[in-house]
Sequence to fold (1019 residues):
Amino acid sequence: MSSSMNNISMQSTKSKRLIQGLKKNTIGWTFILLAILGISAFYLYPMIQAFLLSLQSGMGSNLDYVGLDNYVRLFNDPTFLKALSNTMLFLIIQVPVMIVLALVFSVMLNDPTLKLRGFFRTAIFLPAVTSLVAYAVIFKYLFAQDGFINDFLINMNILSDPINFLADPFWAKITIIIAITWRWTGYNMIFYLSALQNVDKSIYEAARIDGASSIQQFFYITIPVLKPIILFTSIVSTIGTLQLFDEVMNITSGGPGNETLTISMYIYNLSFEYTPDFGYAATVSYVILLLVVVFSFIQFKVAGDRS
Amino acid sequence: MNKIKRIFTYVFLSIATFVSIFPFLWMCISMTNKSVDVTRGRLIPGSHLFENITNLFQNYNIITSIVNSLIVAVITTVLTLLIGSLAGYGFEIFRSKGKDVVFNILILSMMIPFAAIMIPLYRLFGRISATAPLFGIDTLAAVILPTVITAFFVFFFRQNTKMFARDLVEAGRMDGLGEIGIFFRIFVPSMKTTYAAAAIIAFMNSWNNYLWPLIVLQSPENHTIPLLISTLGAGYSPDYGVIMTAIVIATLPTALVFFLMQKHFVAGMMGSVKG
Amino acid sequence: MLKNVFKRFSWLLGLALLITMLAACSEDDQTQGSANDSGDEGTSEFEGSLLAWAWDQNFNVAALEIAQNYFDEELKMEIVDSSSADIVQRLNAGLSSGTMKGMPNIVLIEDGRAQTFLRSYPNAFYPIGEYFNTDDFASYKIAPTSYDGKQYGLPFDTGVTGLFYRKDILEEAGYSEEDLQNITWGEYVDIAIEVKEKTGTAMISLDPNDLGIIRMMLQSAGSWYTTPDDEINIENNDALKLALENYKKLMDSEAVYMVSDWSNYIGSFNNGDAATVPTGNWMAPSIEQAESQAGLWRVAPIPRLDIDGAKNAANLGGSSWYVLNIDGKEKAAEFLGQTFGSNKDFYQDLVTEIGAIGTFKAASEGEAYQIEDDFFGGQKLIYKFSQWMEDIPQIDSGINTNGIEGILEAEMQNYLKGESLEDVLNNTQEQAENQFK
Fold:
């Protein structure tokens, strides 16, 4: 608003600013130098190697350059297409549910008058730190044909016959979605909880005085303020779900049939379970990369981030 | 009305808590049972806890593994926080077109599955082994190096810097503080909760990291906790009581780190710094 | 806006190109050889310590430790205990990157995976045929452990299968011990339905993601998913047809107790929810851990497919020792040859101390194999297994078993839902040919 007044003095300070700007720019680069070096060496460089690998095919170390054959092969590979559609399904259903749940938890647990806050927070975070091996075993017990979930639903008269969750194509997917949500909601909650501390409390007080309900405060203050973090968590969760491996590997191993097979699990199978074809596995990995780029681009656009 | 809301909040949180900790409680009960009772799904505490613990500590190098995991996790967390926040801050405060491009390229690196870059990375460490064996294959340094500098934390700190009041930086410059001084004296103290969250995540990622340590650490004396747990389940007739015991022990450090760090998540703490 | 996007991408492209060039340049100085050829042949003057990778502290690792007592030289050996899946990943990473640092001298590999390694990494393994006599071992072990006319693996434990059953439950349904000797899988399914009807107990617990039962059926008839020259053998495979029909009949009956996991599987018979466990001999310790069921279990030969020439014998699991082509290979091969390769007394120790049944044929003449097992009503469990072992039909499981089974698992769901057997087999054949040709 004061830009018109500054116009006069701008001319004289322009050159000075330019030098300052350059200096600032150099300092800026030093801040990010270590990260650039490290990520280039340990991630970007191997990524390029992986890309070169994706142009090769063969058993183990007997690799030959095949050009784009691997990329063509993808479209005629029913297992890959199945893995792709499963993964997209997990993504579309699971990420929004988890983000909303995590937001609700963090707002509830940010209330300073809430008793046992630390306990509730730790409890809800606990699934994220629990060893996957153990929780997979327990999940399988819970969802077994004679497991707790079936017993409970039958006792409540919701079901008449037990559902075989892990052997049924539809219910196995639901079980995986429940498992990921269970494990990662508390994890996402941390990002919101920490970000909420950086919100000026006086904004809420002003809103309260203006008679805004807590629902209104949530939508008109909390969400806009948290936007950068919501963007961060949705991109990170998108990446996590597109690379989903652990839960599927340990709970259903991709079954029944290939009904819960994910792209990452397929990469694992191509590398270690079947006769290793690291070239084709790298090709499939680049599909994940491409998908994440597309989804992140959309999310950046939707969020209207300045970059 | 307010009271009803309160009651609803408690009921909702209690249900969520129960669902969240139920499997953990199950593990705690299982660690007191014999393997055969664990496989039977017994949910009553047994009297086998002492045997399970002795078996675990006598037959496996669990103490070595815990120490290794702690060394890796603590070093990783400290370095991650430092490098990640420096870069995240740098990208946002000294924003320029060139840096944005670099940022986008760095972000690409978190989008590819680790399995894809694992073998090239292993080959890279094979070459490092030849010149600097202290950082090569089968050293804890090889586990730490690729995990301390990740796009994830650069991105995380950058997004949080967006919520940081930029006028504080200007104020610092007015006061004649150098750019490094502004970062350490103004940014770091006012972003305590962000650092707390990052510490939790970095510690947890490191503590649970499996695939890369598995490949790069071969000698048992270098194994971390997840590798040990994987070994425990490897037998033809695995002892599930012992496995559960190891898992409960392995869960505690991260849970503790979380519990200590979450205390920093107190609404309005920022107020005092922002004035 | 579009221009903007283009601008950003051109930047990206430029940088990517630059890094690619850098990477391509540094590609040359890489050590691409997958094995370290020490060059000087025949030197067994290796002074260092041998490194071995194996899984199961109480079984394979223990076997290696005992073996050291039977080697005539003083030997330094470090044994790393990790899971079989972990070993597969480490070995693949090491061999495919050509970085042999930290790779073991001796490694245990499951028989089903061995061909994959031998063919994927030529020259990475050291042929050890000169260090023992292959005729001394059960013949079914030779195909998976050799490649291109060379013997690479030293056969170790057997995965010989048997039909573990609860005598009490089967008697309640009217079946005596004789009724279960040398039956076919078709008869097994009929008995299963009867047992469920009369006693209410399921005959078998099955994990729909584990097709081990199909493998056992196929092998009893000497058939497999592939032919010995690696052709996909699905659509015209009569043994597979019969196996799938048996499987479907079983799954459609009430006689199956569904499990979803290994611990769940073990729990099912520990809990008395399944009357029989047709599987490898290595399951015995898990069955025995249910102490309250002592004396109730027996073991009979595994059923066979109702096909001419089928045997009541099959294999499930089992693994063998391999030597990597790195420094110390001669010493490692000598060690294996002298112990696992030829020492009958050593095998007696293996049986008594860890219950491991080897595939060294002469071993079964020893006294330790005659032990009567009280848990199984005084049956000579180990002797029985070692006898059945010699009948196991030899098959070459090739390199695509796991891949084909992945496809078959998916198609199996369609079959169980009612699709015709012919369609299911044709689809499987077609997909497998696309993927593995």
Q: What stands out?
A: Chain A touches chain C through 43 residues (CB under 8 Å). Residues 154 and 270 of chain A are 41 Å apart (CA to CA). The domain at 72-303 of chain A is CATH 1.10.3720.10 (MetI-like fold).
